[in-house]
Amino acid sequence: MNSNRLIIFFALIFSFPASAFEIDSSINTAIEPLAQTLSSFIFFEVFIFGASMPLIVIWLIAAAIFFTFYLNFLNLTGFKHAFQLIRGDYADPKNEGELTHFQALSTAVSGTVGIGNIAGVAIVISIGGPGATFWLIVAGLLGMSTKFAECVAGVMYRQVNLDGSISGGPMYYLEEGLRQRNLAWLGRPMGIFYATSIVVGCLGIGNMFQSNQAFQQFIFITGGDESFFIDKGWIFGFLLAAIVGIVIIGGIKGIARVTSKLVPFMTLTYVIGAILVIILNSNKVVWAITSIFTEAFNPTAMSGGILGVMILGFQRATFSNEAGIGSAAIAHATVKTKEPVSEGYVGLMEPFIDTVIICTLTALVILTTVYDPEMANTGIQGITLTSSAFSSTLSWSVVPLSFIAILFAFSTTLSWSYYGLKGWTYIVGESRSAENIFKIFFCIFVALGCMINLESVLKFSDALVFLIAIPNIFGLYVLAPLIKKEMHKYQMKLKQGLIINNRES
Fold first, then answer.
1. I need a surface site. Which of 51, 140, 200, 450 has the fewest CB within 10 A?
2. Is domain 2-496 annotated with CATH 1.20.1740?
3. How many angstroms separate the CA atoms of 257 and 248, rounded?
4. Is the pTM of this model over 0.85?
5. What are the residue ranges spanned by the domains of the chain?
């Protein structure tokens, strides 16, 4: 029945000619004032010693620093245990939940690893030089602490539905957690606000933007300006929407089955390709690494000085791994565990994979190939610069890189469909019909992303996604003592052998 409904809606999309979607200008005109107002508010910049920085980034970085110290640098000491959990050493299939630790991590990572890792790093380097990479790494390491706190809270306050499925995330720990802290009057409204914002936000940053980027890469692969599909976004949009629909029909388990295979494949492929390029340009590796550290404290690529290049690195890391946004906690809440802290350990690996590993490798590829201090004035940035870096050493790599970018966009869409779905059911209630309505609506927007240019919608959704960091981090601050208490209890159980390591037993 569900599949029949999706087929009907996809058929409707397919039957419309491209001219039927010439509505983007009117939509942009209507939404632009609201989008501009919200964007100006959430990305309001303050100037510090001549360098500008959005207040929201300060809010996110401050939280990351706080939790790093408050949790006793667990982001640096928790690697071994995190790896053990991901490997399944402590897994118990009898535990309540839907996903394994590895599946939850794969789903969450698929929501962050994407175009930003390929294009965003190039932009930062082209503006701020090699030193921005150092601060990007620092911010990624700090963000691991925020992810830990989010994921612990996500499991602590998750809801088990009548059918055995799990609902969790900031909406739930804001409502229930703040109630426990005698802030019941604030919890539910903040939960509703978060849920509403992530529903709208997922349709832009996690949907239309991703499908549009996938289509652009597909056009490049199939001939660029000469491609048969250049004016046929509706064909690609329909096919992509159909594939997304088939996957998300199965809920989080269906999404996890795909992401748990897709994420390791595309991540390893990208990492291997990057390492190969770096090895083939090994004569420049020492210079690149040295430049990353020296330029971090004595930058020459930009006028903002040390603070300016620091801000660039922090911004890129924050926008890349989404630590503090709270979205990943929605996926991690579904894990099969009775120990919330175990998923905190797993969650802290996300910024490490996304920012510390992948973004750093991208930076090294650029620095060991095509980087020149003068490029700050050339306008070469984004995925064009990254593609040039790979192709300068591996001439055949442009097409595979574009294909990986398509997979990145696809996997991100899958994860964000679930984030939006959980926000939607939090508002309207858990039911199969409510889920189907959202899934159909989401798939329609996937197709639309390839057909129309809704810049204002994307700007609005982007601002909303970062706006939700305000209530999310506020909630984490309120819940910080409970999270820390839970962490100490878990660590004590480990020491006492009360939590069994299946590999060692």
1. 200
2. yes
3. 10
4. yes
5. 2-496
